[in-house]
Amino acid sequence: MALLTPQGVKEVFQFQKPQGREHLRRLLNWEEFDELRDARRSILLDTVYDSIIFAVGKGFPWVEVVQVVKFTEELLKETKGCSITEAVTVLGNKLRDYQKQFNVTHLLALCDYFHNTFIRHYRLYQYVLSQEQEVNLTVAHVQMCAPPQPLPLTEGMDRDVWRHEQQMAELSTAEVQKRTNVLLLKETLSLEQAHMLQKAFGGEEAPVQLQPRPTLRREALERLVSEAIHIQIACLQELLQYEIQAAFDILDLRLQKKTLSLGAPPPPLPCITSGQVAVEESPKASKSNKGKKGKAKK
User: Fold this and answer.
1) Where are the alpha helices (DSSP H) in the chain?
2) What dihedral do alpha carbons 56, 58, 64, 66 form, nearest 10°?
3) Minimal CA–CA distance to 91: which of 104, 105, 72, 64?
4) Contact by Cβ (8 Å): 94, 76
5) With b meaning 16 or more CB within 10 Å and e meaning fewer, what string describes 78-108?
6) Cβ(273)–Cβ(173) below 8 Å
7) Burial group, residue 69, by CB count within 10 angstroms (0-12, 13-18, 19+)
8) Same domain, 24 and 124
9) pLDDT, mean of residues 276-297
C-alpha cells in the first residue's frame, strides 16, 4: 500500500483492464504470478481492481479511492475463514471505522457495493480464497501448419471459365464411362453364354450315351441346338438393349456438351501494352503516309 497513491489509482483507471491490473499489482508490491496456475491471487487482484472501478464510477475523489482499496484488502483478510454472520459483523465494524474517511453518500454506496458483491457471493469467495484448490492443467503443444503458397495470378483462371471446363470434363468422363460399361457387359455376357452352353451340353451328354437309338440322338441334338440358339439370342438381346440405351445416353451427353460450348463464357480480354498499341497504330500510320504520297504525286 505504500506505493498506492491518488496518482497511482488514477493511472490504474486510465489503463485498459489488462494493463491496469498489471500496474495495480506493481503498486501493491505483489510478486509476479501465473494467472492460470495461481487463480486465487488472480481473483484477489480482480476484486481490488473492481473496487477501484466502482469507486471512480461513483465519483469518489482519488484520495478516497485509495482508501477503498485499503478497505477491500482489509475486509478480504479479516473475513478469511469466518461464517457469513461473522463476515457481516466485520463489514459493519469496518464501515464504522472508515466513516471519517468518507461522507455519508459514499459510505452508503460502499456498503451497498460490498453487500451486493462480496456478501451475496460470500460462500463462493470463501471456497476459492480459503481452501486449497487442486489445479489440473494440461499443456498441449500444437503445431500450426501454414497454408500453401498460392500460385501466381498470371496462372489463374476466370471462375466462369473454370466452371465451364469442369462441366465439360464431367460430361466427357461420363461418356467414356458409358463406353467402358458396354465393353464390360460384352465380356460378361460372353463368359455367361459360354458357361450356359457348357452346362447345357454337359447336361445332355449322359442321356445321349444312355439312348443309343438314332431317333433319340437326333431329338437330343435338336434340343441342344435349339437351347444353344435360345441362349445366344437372349444374350444378344440383352446386349443390344444395353447398347441402344448407351447410345441414347451418349447422344444426350454430346448434346449437353454442344449446348455448353455454345454458351461458353467469353475469354478474358488481353492486356494492352504500349508495344501492342504501337503495332495496332502502325497500319493507320502507313495508310496516312500512302495518302500523303498520293497527294504529293498529284
Assistant:
1) 6-14, 17-27, 39-57, 62-78, 84-97, 104-114, 122-130, 159-210, 214-262, 274-297
2) -40
3) 72
4) no
5) ebeeeeeeebbeebeebbeebeebbeeebbe
6) no
7) buried
8) yes
9) 51
| Among candidate residues 67, 74, 30, the one with its CA nearest the CA of residue 52 | 67
Would residue 135 count as lying in a domain?
no
Q: Provide the grid cell at 43.
A: 481473483
How high does pLDDT run on average in the chain?
79
- Answer yes or no: do 197 and 88 share one domain: no
Residue 104 sits in the same domain as residue 178: no
- Tens digits of residue pLDDT in 106-115: 999 999 999 9
Q: What is the pTM of this model?
A: 0.45
Assign 99 to helix, strand or coil. Answer: coil
Give the domain extent around 19: 6-130
Binned at pLDDT 50, 70 and 90, residue 3 comes out as low
Whether 113 maps to a domain, the answer reads yes
In this structure, the answer to whether residues 96 and 204 fall within a common structural domain is no
207 in any annotated domain = yes
How long a stretch of residues is the chain?
298
Confidence bin at 203 (pLDDT 50/70/90)? low
In a domain, 190, yes or no: yes
Q: Cell numbers of 24, please?
A: 495495480
Domain total of the chain: 2
19 and 77 within one domain: yes
